[in-house]
Amino acid sequence: MANQFYWQLPTSGDARYGNATRQRRGEASDPNYPVFGNGVTDPRRNAFSYFDYIHQVTKAADLSGFNGIFIPDNPDGEEPWIVAGYVARSTQRLKLLTQFDASRGSAVYAAKNAVSFQRYTGGRFAWHITEGSQDERIRKQLGDFVPKQDILARIDEFITVAKGVLTTFPFNFVGRFFEVQDGGFQGPLSDRQVPSIYLGGNSTAQLELSAKHADVHVLDAVEHDAIAQQIAAYRQIAQGRAVDFALRIDVLARETREEALEDAKRFLNQTEAAIPADDSPLLWPGFSEQHTGAKASLIGSYDEVAAALAAYAHLGVTQFVLAAVPHFEEAYRVGTHVLPLVRQLTNPAQKQAA
Amino acid sequence: MSIDVFWRIPTHGEPGSHRARDPFRGDWFPGNDNKTLSGLGGGGDDGFTYIDYLAEIARAAEISGFQGGLIPSFPNTDEPWVISAFLARETKNFRFMIPFQPGFLNPVVAARMTASLQRATGGRALYNIITGGGGPSQLWWGDPVKHDDRYGRTTEFLDVLKGIWAGGPFSYNGQFYQVEDAGLPDPLSKEEYPEIYFSGSSDAALASASKHADYYLSWLEPFDLIKDKFARVKERTDHLGRKIKCSIRVDIVARPTEEEAWREVSRGFENIPKEILDRYKAQNAGDSVGASRQRGLRPQTINSYKDFILSPNIWTGFSLLRGGQTLGIVGSYENVAARLDELVQLGTDAFILASTPHLEEAYRVGEEVLPLVRGKSGASNLRAVA
Ligand SMILES: Cc1cc2nc3c(=O)[nH]c(=O)nc-3n(C[C@H](O)[C@H](O)[C@H](O)COP(=O)(O)O)c2cc1C
Question: So what's the ipTM on this one?
């Protein structure tokens, strides 16, 4: 199958600037501090909400040739399942890759909600299940008191139960975290597609969990040789159970490398982050992580960024979860200028046919 | 204060009328235990799915004057959180009443879901807090907790939700839920707390409702029982220094004449398969106090639809026509409005009405019945037609 490209939605605010407090799209403005000052009448009142903006980013991804959207779970932002439902009806073909962790509640309830998603979208719902925060203090703020060493076991049970009730009737299970008796969906709710399951992580336990349950194993952005090693490590542990590999990586691509560097430095200035002394590498670790959650960003010309993505594809990555700030304009830019190049580089047959 | 009236979204499929058992709109029909194509035009795959039809109903309800709709959640229905999010952009006023069992969600996640849905809809989300009917279905949902403990859990859940909403950092150490320094992130924390409807008939339910609910929600019961029940809930809540309102979920068949309305019911009754009648006579499951109150109203002998007439315009056979609750109102537009007004006099502050098919009937009830309801003032609000 051809490579799949996901565009990330900004679930916790977006702006043109590196410092998002300076301008926040879609939020109702504070009547005491009108954005337009006294010069221009602001006709918006409360007619729009941040969701209208999220919706525009979704349409941008759809119109500019992405295969799906990735809806990240940031505890400081919108709840991803609600976002997925909100944008679902405005899209015909985008996959809705929705991130969450297994502390959200009952696995049966999650599966049952997934049934409605799948029925209404023709099976476009997908799950990226994470471990949540590594910080126990933050997990407790989120109502999760399960100790760190049990988190993977809970994900394992969550998926086992969800898959069980989605595919089997009657389904029975008694575990440490979940229990169900004579479960499973019948009638119109039966026999629906299990959401594609995305998992991540590089520890042996995480790789084993992916080997057991995942359709797609998600890799964080690192240099090409490290990705090659991680894919090899998975294959060694999985003993033949194949998964697809997804790479979660940001991109800052411009017509020329000079422009890309200029914009990258301006962005870092706005976030008050240090500018690297050596700007020659394509991959900048931590570049927009605060905004997008991705571990690194490719920075360069359209050709350079496309070539770097294609090089990951040659190592075995078949799905890309991309993001850039601001998400709306950059969706069009990346969709128009970068994706076609990557598709050509990774699928020359398509080029000949065109 | 005037009366709030909601409609219902039929998450469990939709026959074409009260008399018909099929054809169904969408992919439900009696005895269908298989996955089928979800097309609306006769079952073939026409590219539409059931949400397209539900969208039509939500629009019909808001256009014809309903506040919004209750979106029931049972093992064989689609789910209200999903439906609400899907329909947020397509509706303007429609308020999404979401039933859910608190036990199924982490309250911090529920708080974020709700705040996001409020942001997505301009504050149109509200709850029907349900606590589960027990029996095999409770374990089907993956929930082993017993009846009264479930209400304890419901109370804890709402304690936490309210605490988080009031502004963090909020900590709570309950039997079912713990949080430490929880709160909602900045833009989400500005949203209105959802209005809470609350269902359940047991003592445990009333205790939880009186602490947390804005509206106590009941199925229709015989009028004297409803009056007592509402008086009890209100008294109990008064004791806590709070105020609670009362509301009723009821099916109706309203026609230009009473005769036509009964004809609809009689045709529907004739079409009930024998197995369904037999099963009805034998039914007994679960630990729901509310459900057994309804079962207590079954007639001794069943020969015709008339055996189910409890009092003027009150028919107890609705669960046989399409499942769900038993009592409903049958009559002319004036009859139905008059019964609703009697219920208002007995202490009802809001209604959730339903009739089949929900799409066309939303227009009928909005146009023909709601204008006749006098509400608390007792006087007709309609200007005399010259
Ligand atoms: C108006 C009304 C609507 C209800 N809707 C639902 C529903 O959508 N899903 C559900 O599982 N239970 C629903 N219930 C069931 C109750 O919430 C509750 O679980 C049941 O009545 C058992 O509680 P009890 O023993 O206190 O009566 C509803 C009840 C009423 C009165």
Answer: 0.95
